[in-house]
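Regression test attached.
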Amino acid sequence: MGLPYIVRRSIVYVLSLFGGLLINFLAPRLVPGNPLQTRLMELQRMGVRVAGKEFIEKYMRIFGLDQPAHIQFINYLSSIFQGNLGVSITRFPAEVKDVIAAHLPWTLGLLFSSYFICFFVGVILGALVGWKSTKMRNIVLMIFIVLSQMQYYTIAMSLIYLFAFLFPIFPTGSAYSLGAKYETIFHQLADIIWHAFLPALSIILIGIGGWSLAARGLMVSVKGEDYLLLAKAKGLSNRRKFLYYGLKNTLLPQVTDLAITLGFVVAGSILVEVIFRYPGMGFVLYRAILALDYPLIQGIALMYVFGVTTAGFLIDLTYPLIDPRVRYE
Amino acid sequence: MNMANVKYTLKRLSINIRNIKENSYILAGLCLLISIVLFAFIGILITPYDPVKIGSVPSDLPPSFNHLLGTDSLGRDLFTQLCFGTLTSLQIGFLAGIIGFFIALIVAFVGGYYGGTLDSILTILTEVFLTTPTLVILIIIASVVERVEIPIMATIIAAFAWAWPSKTIRAQVLSLKERGFIYLSKLSGLSGLEIIFKHMIPNILPFLGSYFAVVVSAAMLSEVGLEVLGLGPRHTITLGMMLHWAMMHAAVTRNLIWWWLPPCIMLFLIFLSLFLIQRGLDIIANPRLKGE
C-alpha cells in the first residue's frame, strides 16, 4: 500500500466527506427540471401552506443557482463550511441548522447509550458462552443467531405491541411526557429514560446477536493461546483468568468493528426513531421526506454522513493507542 | 471455461453435496427460499383482488375466509399485498444483489490480481464506500428521483452494496495469487483473464456464492429501509411499503396485527433463508467452521 496507515485513513476520511457533499450537491441538480420549484408548486396546488416565492428567492440567493456548476459547487462548499445549510420549506423561516440543533441531542443520547450498552453486554455475553461449555450453549447460540437476523422494524413494532399496547408498561412513542411538571431533575431524567427504554432496547436487541457471536468466536481462539496456559500454570482463579486474560483479549479486537458497524446502527436508529416517533434527527428526516422538504432532508443527511465518518475515523485512529499489539505501518 | 474444468468444479461440488452434515444449512435455506417464492406465486394466482388499488375492498377487516389476512385502512386486501410484495421485494433484492456482486467481483479481481496504483485507488475507493452510511446516501438520492421504478431502485442500491464483499474477495484473490498452481499457469503462458476465469474463480466458487448471498441480503436491507421511510416504488407494493403504510396508519396501536406482523415475519424468513445459504457455502469454503 505504500502510504502510512494514518495518511491513508485520513485520505479515506476526507474522500468520504467529500463524496457525501458531492452527492448532496449533484443529486437534486442531475434530476431534470427544478425539483424544488415543482414540489413547491405541487404543494401549493394541494393547498398546503408553504413558503412560496419568498423562499425560492432566498434559496436562489443563498446558493446562486444561476451560476456555472463548478462555481456553484465552490459556493456550496463554502456556505456549508460556514454552517449554512439553507432554510426549511415546511418550517419556514426556520434555518435547517437550527432544526438539526434542536433534535440532535435526542439522537445522540439514544444512539450512544444503546450502542455502548449493546457492545459491552453483547461482548461479555458472547465471551461467557465461549468460555464455558455448558448445555445451555446451543440454546443461547440459537437465540443469538435468530436475533442477528432480526430487523429493526420487526423488533420495534413487536416491542410496541407487547410492552406498550398489550401490556401498557411503556409509552408507545415520543421522548418525554408532554406538558409534565417535574419536581426534580431526577424525575425528568426518569421520564426520559422511561420513554427511551423501548427504542434503546430495539437497537440493543438487534446488535447484541452479532457482537456475541463474534466475541464467542474470538474467545474460543483465545482459549487456545499460550498466555492462558501460563495463567493456568500460575494457578490463577477462574474469575481472574476470564476477566484479565480472556475477556480483555476478546474485547479489544472488536473495537475496530465499532467503526464498521456504526453506519448500520445509525441507519437502524433512523428507522427506530420513526417507528417510536422519537423526536431525534431520524424522525425529522422522515417527516421531511414525507413533506418533500429538500433542504431539511439534505441538511440532516449531511449531518449523518459527517457524524458517522468522523466517529469512524476517530475510532480507527485511537485503536492503536488502546491495543499496543496493533502497529499500523 | 473448458469442459474438464467444469467437470472438475462439479466433482468438487458433488463431493461436498454428499456430505449432508455440511450442507444441511444450504438445503434448509434453499427449501425455505423456494417455498417462500412458491407461496407468493400461488397466492397471486388464486387471489381475486388488486394489491395496490385503493378502496377495492372494505377497509380494516380482520382475517376471514374471503380475506385471509384481512384488509388495510386504505381498502386493500393484505394477503394479496403480502404475495405481491414478497415477489417485488425479492426482485429488487436479487437484481440489486446481482449488479452489486458484479461490481464487487470486477473491483476485487482487477485490484487484487493486477495490483499497482490501480489497486491502491480501488482499495481507497472501497474504504470510502465502507465508511459512508449507505442508507443516508440512498435517502439523498431516492428523495430526488421523481418516479422510483424497480430497476432504478435496484441500480441505486447496488451502487452502494458492493464495498464489503469487494474487500473480502480481494483478500482471497491476494492469497490465491501466491499459490503454486497460479505461478505455474503464469509460467505456462496463460493470460491474466484466463487464469482468473479458469483457475481462480472455480477455486473460490463456494466463497463467492456465500458473498453473493451477503450482497443480496445487504441490498434487501437497504431496500426495506428506504421503503419503510416512504421512498419505495409508488405504483407497486413491496414488503417495506406494506410496513410503511402500516406505520402511517398506526396499525400497531390500533390492534391491526394482521397488517404489520405478516410482512415482518416474511422479511425475517427471507433474511433467514439467505443467511442459511450463506452459512452453508461458508462452511464448504472454509471447513474449519464446521464445528461451530
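Expected vs. actual: identical. Chain B touches chain A at residues 120, 123-124, 127-128, 130-137, 139-141, 143-146, 221, 224-225, 228-231, 243, 246-247, 252-253, 255, 257, 260-261, 264, 267-268, 271-272, 275, 292 (CB under 8 Å).
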